[in-house]
Amino acid sequence: MLAVVGLIVVGKVAVDTSVAFLSAVRIFLLSKLRSLSNFKERYGPWAIVTGATDGIGKEYARELARLGVNIILMSRSIDKLTKVAQEIEAEFHVETQVVQVDFSGGRSIFDKIAEAIRGKEIGMLVNNVGVMYEMPMELCELSQDVIWQHVNINMGSLTMMCWLVLPQMLQRRRGAIVNLSSSSSVGPLPYMNIYSASKIYVDYFSRALSHEVRNSGVTVQTLIPFYIATNLTKFSDFIGRQSVLVPNAQTFVRSALSTLGICDRTTGYWSHELQLFSCNVVPTWFWIRFGGMMQQFLRRDALKKRK
Fold first, then answer.
1. What is the pTM of this model?
2. Which of 70, 117, 197, 279 would staple 95 via disulfide (CB 3.0–4.6 Å)?
3. Domain range summary for the chain, segments of one domain joined by +
4. How far is 115 from 113, CA to CA, in rounded Å?
């Protein structure tokens, strides 16, 4: 009996590994073989990128502009928005529009956003804006402001932005929405509990929305990246420096953008896909325990860096 059980377990692991490998080859090999030259015609002339002044958001804005798409940049700092818009217009010769908005403001900000994008044919929405702890912390160390930022920015803004732009996409039967989740959504993550919970919301919401709009001509993609060398990870040298496992924002975005239309749920980057597979084969109790240890290590690294 034990031998039979062992064979079943080994067989399941072998099948899962084979499926994951073939899936990764399909996603990342096919994405390199196709051209994105018709991107504007396929999705539409304008793209909205939230959190567009740094990191992943800025690189999405630049890469979409490189494809000839006009960009609506949304973020909190008008100085940074203006600078990025000017850089994009000068380099890629597309139109830009800036919308200064603090996504922690809750419901009241979306009337302003709706008015700002009125009359624009939005072909793509990149819901990138997000917040994360300044370093791993226990719940009681967090301020109320940080807690509500995770609710309003990581969950509320993403949902409302989809609600604002999706009707026109469905009417035209073309468009794409990219929602940034995180590897922290793989399982409960101690010392990043609110952040982790907000990102599983993004994952579940996006997957359900993708099913709702199937066969409509609109694509909804969930990205589940692991660590990327951006301002959000600079608190630790361990995860804030570029490496094979930690790409910079430009490398990640170019890879992730090429998977749009090929896969509706992906990490966006080949080494992150391997990390996701490894995480999915371990039991939840191991993920929680190992994840907690990892976050404690990153906390110590952050505190050391502050000295």
1. 0.87
2. 70
3. 37-306
4. 5
Backbone φ and ψ of 221, nearest 5°: -115, 135
Among 21-35, 145-159, 187-201, the range scoring the smallest mean pLDDT is 21-35
Structure tokens at 22: 């073939």
Burial 59-91 (b: 16+ CB within 10 A, else e): bbbbbbbbbbbbbbbbbeeeebbeebbeebeee
- Candidates 178, 160, 53; CA nearest to 123 is 178
- Measure CA 133 to chain center: 16
Look up residue 80 and give its two tokens.
């940074």
CATH of domain 37-306: 3.40.50.720
- Secondary structure E strands in 113-262: 122-127, 175-180, 218-223
Of 48, 166, 50, 58, the residue nearest 102 (C-alpha)? 50
pLDDT of 112-137, one tens digit each? 999 999 999 999 999 999 999 988 99
Whether residue 244 contacts residue 273, with contact meaning beta carbons closer than 8 Å, is answered with: no
Catalytic annotation, residues: 195
| Three-state DSSP state, 47 | strand
